[in-house]
UniProtKB/TrEMBL annotation:
Enzyme class: oxidoreductase
Pathway it works in: Lipid metabolism; fatty acid biosynthesis
Record-given protein name: Enoyl-[acyl-carrier-protein] reductase [NADH]
Keyword set, alphabetical order: Fatty acid biosynthesis, Fatty acid metabolism, Lipid biosynthesis, Lipid metabolism, NAD, Oxidoreductase
Chain residues that bind NAD(+): 15, 21-22, 66-67, 95, 167, 197-201
Length: 271
């Protein structure tokens, strides 16, 4: 599938931890489509993760950056522009983490120090990334930024806990900054609301198998995979979607439009 949709384009990919990561698959797909990329992740994730393998496969430098650290982000964009010899054309924000969920704290008994960290890493970080790029004029005209989100921002999924609030904020930042960056330099900012996928972040959600199977049976097309998410993201980085901005785009096999599906109705009837 090499249509060269990203021929000549340069981008930064946040959040590739291992082969299951949505960012890992997206990085590979971008390179297959002709892009050059820089990979980045938190220093601790780089130590634990397997990113060197991906970097070799993609012929990409790895520049560490904690998304909550402005010096790291400044360094990332500055070094990326030096590496590419100019602005970047696309950015993938594929970052999320909740310490409360990791520790098993329920939504009705949150530790707010942890919640602030969750918001910073999972939501405010998009603003930090965009503000850094905006000030450095680091993204080209009609450049494209995509952040990954989940439908718990709109509907209640109790086990998604504080991450639902983080995703709602993330989607709002995409709209709000989408205005300013659109006016400044026609830069496009969208979120992709993806089906559940078994990744490190995904599997941190309590009852995750239930999420995955329920969504699969509710969706007329079934769940969208991480590979399919990578394909969709490529289209948003390409010139074929130059007028799409400030949108939350569902990539979920139809799940978000469903009330009930026949398989789920039949299961309920048999109870
Ligand atoms: N897996 C799913 O079911 C699913 C569904 C919808 C949306 N998403 C979203 O997709 C994105 C990617 O998640 P994934 O499922 O590929 O899991 P993943 O665990 O592979 O990726 C999460 C990434 O966030 C990075 N990260 C955490 N803290 C960071 C920090 N301080 N600085 C920089 N990076 C940091 C991790 O190192 C990791 O690479 C997340 O935003 C997630 O919420 C996932």
């Amino acid at each position: 599938m090499a249509q060269n949709l990203l021929q000549g384009k340069k981008g930064i990919i946040f959040g590739a931890l291992d082969e299951k990561s949505i960012a890992w698959k997206t990085a590979k797909r971008c390179v297959e489509q002709g892009a050059q990329i820089v990979l980045t992740n938190a220093p601790i994730a780089l130590r634990m993760g397997e990113i060197k393998k991906l970097a070799e496969e993609c012929n990409a430098p790895v520049i560490p950056a904690d998304v909550t650290n402005m010096d790291d982000l400044n360094n990332l964009f500055t070094k990326s522009m030096e590496h590419f010899g100019g602005q970047v054309d696309f950015v993938l924000h594929s970052v999320g983490m909740s310490i409360n969920m990791r520790k098993g704290n329920p939504y009705t008994d949150l530790n707010y120090d942890f919640t602030q960290k969750t918001m910073d890493i999972s939501a405010l970080s998009l603003h930090r990334v965009l503000q850094t790029a905006y000030k450095l004029d680091a993204i080209s005209e009609y450049g494209s930024v995509v952040a990954l989100t989940y439908i718990a921002a709109q509907r209640v999924f109790p086990d998604y806990s504080e991450m639902a609030d983080a995703k709602a904020m993330l989607e709002s930042i995409a709209r709000s900054f989408g205005y300013h960056y659109g006016v400044k330099n026609k830069v496009r900012i969208n979120t992709i609301s993806q089906s559940p996928v078994r990744t490190t972040a995904g599997s941190g959600v309590k009852g995750f198998d239930g999420f995955v199977n329920y969504a699969d049976q509710m969706s007329p097309l079934g769940n969208a995979s991480a590979d399919q998410c990578a394909d969709y993201t490529v289209t948003l980085f390409s010139d074929l979607t130059r007028m799409v901005t400030m949108q939350n785009l569902y990539h979920d096999g139809g799940f978000s439009s469903m009330g009930i599906s026949l398989p789920v109705a039949e299961k309920m009837a048999s109870e």
